[in-house]
Amino acid sequence: AVDNLSLNFYEGNITSLLGHNGAGKTTTISILTGLFPTSSGTIFVYGKDIRTDQEVIRKNMGVCMQHNVLFNYLTTKEHLLLYGYIKVPHCSKQELYQEVKRTLKETGLYSHRHKLAGTLSGGMKRKLSIAIALLGGSRVVILDEPTTGVDPCSRRSIWEIISKNKKGRTIILSTHHLDEAEVLSDRIAFLEHGGLKCCGSPFYLKETFGDGYHLTLTKKKECDTAAVTSLIQSYLPEAYLKEDIGGELVYVLP
């Protein structure tokens, strides 16, 4: 649940909603996109009230949900054409094809444009979901854990795509990776139990609440986490393992 949450988001900025599982990130995203109604309060998007102007708001909004909403038997290009026809029906066929081509190139999917979505890797599927969200000049782009389930290399490639496309857009993303929020964000909002704990730029938050340096390691399948931890602590006894998620280990160093 979300409890008395008040936040401002700014055009040209990336704002990250950061918090552990159950902190209220996905619920907040669902309310922002109109999937869940508010029990009280409201949301204004470029002056439009989500309670009364939801259809107008959605025309300027792109969404990448936590789980890919793709069709296995459509190609990458066909996905963008399909969503493009739905999202910007007023565009001519030529304009839409040019927009799709540009989006494919910007997201690194152009060489995969004729591949079926069902044959794409996890990282490519996430890129396609993000490309759909960016399509049609979306002024508000909402990304719910955009790097979920991807390898570290694809993760950094997705970061680059998001950063390159923030001009003229208001981008809101949710994540539980501190390094992701720090790299991408102009502002970070920490959520806990559905409420806002603190909000500010990464520099401000580190200066105010920082607890040391973070060491991020990419691990292989045969990685012995205990041995790595022991090695680090032999040099820095106060260091400790903070995250062991997917293909990465994150240590806090004093």
From TrEMBL:
Q: Would the keyword rRNA-binding turn up in this protein's UniProt record? A: no
Could you list this entry's UniProt keywords, alphabetically sorted: ATP-binding, Membrane, Nucleotide-binding, Repeat, Transmembrane, Transmembrane helix, Transport
Q: Where in the cell is it found?
A: Membrane
Report a single Gene Ontology molecular function. Answer: ABC-type transporter activity
Q: Does the keyword Membrane apply?
A: yes
GO terms for cellular component: membrane
Q: Known SMART domains for this protein? A: AAA (SM00382)
Segments forming domain ABC transporter: 1-218
Membrane topology summary = Multi-pass membrane protein
PANTHER family with a match to the protein in the record? ATP-BINDING CASSETTE SUB-FAMILY A MEMBER 2, ATP-BINDING CASSETTE TRANSPORTER SUBFAMILY A ABCA
Recorded protein name is ABCAC protein
